[in-house]
């Protein structure tokens, strides 16, 4: 029986090759899109899921109130928090403080390698499941001068990852941490699905002792390390959050309350593996982040699949009249309706399986470009999970696509259909038209969304940030540069093509120092403000073209600037200072005189409004920035590289452009923009195939009417207009339905940005015009074909 069904299905596919081809193209394209999105979503959801005790690993998040009443969220916490939590909360099995620092140079003999460091408490490898390859677990990170290095770094330095415990390495990074260390262990490189990649782990105890005074690590107002917890199995995170909510507030009050200081922030824990997808907070509450894009593309995948299935339904019903006699004969011969339904579902499954083969071919062809767009290392490995996922998607598609045609075709009454008459109802017509309207509505929503996302991305790239990011390169202060950075920068400025140069400790893209431990004249009791800031040297203003509102910037014409500070306009407003120039503030125990007010500029992404910011003077900073004359970038960078290598023999010159780094802040949004354009185009193409099917059905249904009209004198243009009018109505209906949905979703997306575009009517008008034009072009092919057909054939009774 099944063999017979297969033969009939195969013959029907061969009989009408145009419709079979259209079905295969539509379903293959739809399935390929779904499979690509599935691979991307699966990879996104796997990030940071490598920990064996994933459900028990949490990060402590700190919040603090802003001057405008909003709540700021920080991943950095007080230096005392980890040890206090493990001591005072029985739910905490391990608690660790972790600091990520600037890249440095690790040397073993004559080999020198760049390495990304991390400073972590002794239980680091008990909290995170980084596999140890060498060393005694109980002793790792207990010695302040012991380090643990990655497998790849060990292979580069020692040509092996085994038996190197006890060997010495030399670290050249932060001044106070430079020196010789002993390798106490080797760990396997972090897996590819780990968001945190690093090469070497130092003891946090060493960092704490070294920078305790600089960063106030022994004070509850400090804002430096990240804190991670391994909670005991069975701990309820929600109840634990209620318990720890005011923990730091109480500690702060006990330690600093007698000085009139007050802090109103709270803490809560978030599962570590959720941080990647839920990385956006609103007033101290996780509200989404990358997870929104995962949901968005999952919905897009479902819609594309549904659109492809609608095509199958429309194309199958469009050729129903060619199969009515087959249905009648089979029913007269005793075939039950259930048997016919199984047969037609079998045909649908066969078409879908063939489409799956086409989809896999499409995926394999476009995967390199898809990997480049998404920035992910995706591979089409046919694992058991992937095969099951593909087959499940195919099964659902086949059943969904074939359900309506199977029910529709099997429901014909044999007494009528053997006369060659196809029984139709208004309901059937409305179903087909409704499906097309649904298709086009989704396509129009995607087109409008793509246009609005593009305009927002354009705003981000063209907005005046308050500084000039063009033609700026930056590179690390490392190796021999650190022996006399001032002299290096002085000589650097003499290179032809170099406009200016300076240094800073951090960047303008979110990597700052700061915290809440600043006091100023007239500060109200309990008033707390979180500041961001940078340590910089001379010439930063000229290099980045940052504007002054009042006062001056740091200059070597005024002697030592160590006791000077500059604030931005938002900081002065938040502090409520009148005539701030010349006034003295206390920053973490050090008195500083205000010498200038900087005009507000964006030192973070446009998701946030400009907040309080300061500049402190320091010459030995971690990053060098260089302004290059426009049009001379290539030759100037070549000169800088030659000069750099004369200072740092053996080290490659690695630099980045500031504007490129700025674009990376919005890498996720840019990828969403690009992917949305592709998938919107795919949805529109598949929708047009569905419209083509309905147009073919309509032309077939009105074949005799068209013949009669031609006989009585109707022109081709009259007939084309008559057939196209109905479809134009469908496209307009789709536009009306899609517009409010598109406005709602895009307005909600734009609310995440502190600086955003205004949604005007142009996006809707252009999207509507495009949809209508595409619909007319699609329909006109069938309309013209029907209009120029020979009326004698049209009027012939079959």
Write a compact overview of the structure shown.
The protein has 24 helices and 27 strands. Helix 9 packs parallel to helix 12. Strands 1, 2, 3, 4, 5, 6, 7, 8, 9, 10, 11, 12 and 13 form a 13-stranded mixed β-sheet that branches. Strands 16, 17, 18, 19, 20, 21, 22, 23, 24, 25, 26 and 27 form a twelve-stranded mixed β-sheet that branches. Strands 14-15 form a two-stranded antiparallel ribbon.
Give the helix level as a range of percent.
40-55%
Contiguous runs where pLDDT drops below 50 for at least 5 residues: none
The separation of the N and C termini measures 31 Å
Shape: elongated
**Sheet/helix structural class:** alpha+beta
Q: What's the total helix number?
A: 24
**Could you tell me the mean pLDDT?**
83
Overall strand count: 27
Radius of gyration based on Cα positions: 34 Å
Q: Per DSSP, what share of the residues sits in E-state strands of 2 or more residues?
A: 15-25%
Largest sheet: 13 strands, mixed
């Amino acid at each position: 029986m099944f063999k017979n069904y297969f033969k009939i299905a195969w013959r029907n596919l061969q009989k009408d090759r145009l419709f079979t081809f259209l079905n295969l193209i539509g379903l293959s394209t739809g399935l390929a899109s779904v499979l690509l999105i599935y691979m991307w979503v699966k990879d996104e959801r796997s990030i940071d899921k490598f920990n064996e005790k994933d459900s028990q690993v949490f990060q402590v998040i700190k919040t603090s109130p802003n001057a405008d009443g909003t709540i700021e969220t920080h991943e950095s916490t007080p230096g005392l928090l980890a040890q206090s939590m493990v001591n005072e909360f029985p739910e905490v099995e391990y608690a660790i403080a972790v600091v990520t620092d600037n890249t440095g140079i690790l040397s073993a003999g004559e080999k020198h390698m760049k390495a990304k460091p991390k400073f972590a408490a002794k239980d680091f490898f008990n909290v995170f499941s980084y596999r140890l390859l060498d060393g005694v677990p109980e002793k790792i990170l207990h010695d302040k001068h012991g380090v643990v290095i990655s497998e790849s770094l060990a292979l580069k330095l020692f040509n092996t990852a085994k038996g190197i415990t006890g060997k010495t390495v030399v670290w050249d990074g932060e001044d106070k941490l430079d020196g010789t260390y002993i390798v106490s262990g080797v760990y396997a490189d972090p897996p590819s699905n780990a968001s945190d990649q690093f090469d070497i782990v130092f003891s946090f105890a060493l960092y704490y002792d070294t920078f305790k005074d600089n960063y106030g690590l022994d004070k509850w107002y400090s804002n430096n390390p990240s804190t991670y917890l391994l909670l005991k199995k069975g701990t309820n995170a929600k109840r634990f959050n209620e318990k720890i909510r005011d923990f730091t507030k109480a500690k702060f009050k006990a330690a600093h309350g007698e000085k009139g200081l007050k802090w109103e922030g709270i803490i809560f824990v978030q599962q570590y593996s959720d941080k990647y997808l839920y990385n956006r907070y609103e007033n101290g509450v996780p509200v989404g982040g990358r997870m929104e894009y995962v949901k968005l593309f999952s919905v897009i995948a479902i819609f594309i699949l549904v659109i492809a299935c609608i095509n199958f339904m429309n194309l199958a019903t469009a050729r129903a009249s060619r199969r009515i006699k087959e249905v009648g004969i089979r029913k007269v011969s005793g075939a039950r309706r259930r048997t016919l339904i199984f047969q037609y579902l079998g045909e649908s499954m066969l078409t879908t399986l063939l489409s799956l083969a086409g989809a896999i071919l499409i995926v394999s062809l476009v995967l390199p470009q898809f990997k480049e767009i998404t920035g992910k290392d995706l591979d089409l490995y046919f694992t058991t999970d992937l095969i099951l996922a593909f087959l499940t998607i195919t099964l659902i598609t086949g059943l969904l696509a074939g359900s309506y045609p199977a029910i529709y075709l099997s429901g014909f009454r044999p007494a009528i259909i053997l006369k060659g008459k196809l029984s139709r109802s208004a309901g059937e017509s409305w179903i087909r038209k409704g499906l097309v309207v649904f298709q086009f509505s989704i396509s129009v929503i995607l087109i409008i969304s793509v246009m609005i996302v593009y305009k927002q991305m354009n705003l981000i790239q063209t907005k005046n940030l308050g500084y000039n990011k063009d033609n700026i390169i930056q590179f690390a202060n490392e190796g021999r540069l650190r022996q006399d950075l001032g002299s290096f920068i002085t000589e650097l400025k003499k290179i032809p093509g170099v406009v200016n140069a300076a240094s800073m400790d951090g960047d303008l893209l979110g990597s700052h120092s700061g915290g809440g431990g600043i006091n100023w004249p007239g500060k109200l009791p309990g008033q707390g403000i979180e500041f961001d800031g940078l340590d910089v040297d001379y010439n930063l203003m000229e290099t980045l073209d940052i504007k002054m509102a009042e006062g001056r910037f740091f200059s070597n014409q005024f002697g030592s600037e160590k006791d000077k500070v500059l604030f931005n306009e938002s900081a002065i407003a938040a502090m409520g200072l009148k005539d701030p120039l010349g006034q003295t503030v206390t920053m973490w125990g050090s008195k500083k005189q205000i010498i200038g007010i900087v005009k507000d500029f964006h030192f973070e992404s446009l998701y946030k409004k400009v907040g309080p910011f300061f500049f402190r003077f320091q010459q030995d900073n971690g990053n060098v920035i260089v302004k290059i004359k426009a049009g001379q970038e290539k030759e100037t960078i070549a000169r800088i590289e030659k000069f750099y290598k004369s200072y740092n023999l053996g080290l490659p010159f690695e630099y980045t452009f500031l504007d490129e780094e700025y674009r990376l802040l919005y890498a996720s949004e840019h990828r969403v923009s690009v992917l949305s354009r592709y998938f919107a185009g795919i949805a529109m193409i598949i929708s047009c195939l569905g419209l083509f099917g309905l147009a073919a059905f309509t032309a077939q249904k009105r074949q005799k009417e068209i013949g009669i009209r031609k006989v009585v004198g109707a022109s081709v243009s009259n007939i084309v207009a008559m057939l196209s009018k109905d479809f134009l109505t469908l496209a307009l209906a789709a536009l009306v339905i899609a517009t409010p949905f598109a406005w709602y979703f895009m307005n909600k997306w734009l609310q995440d940005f502190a600086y955003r575009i205004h949604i005007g009517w142009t996006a809707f008008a252009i999207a509507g015009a495009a949809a209508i034009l595409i619909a007319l072009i699609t329909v006109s092919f069938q309309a013209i074909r029907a209009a120029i057909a020979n009326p004698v054939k049209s009027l012939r009774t079959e």
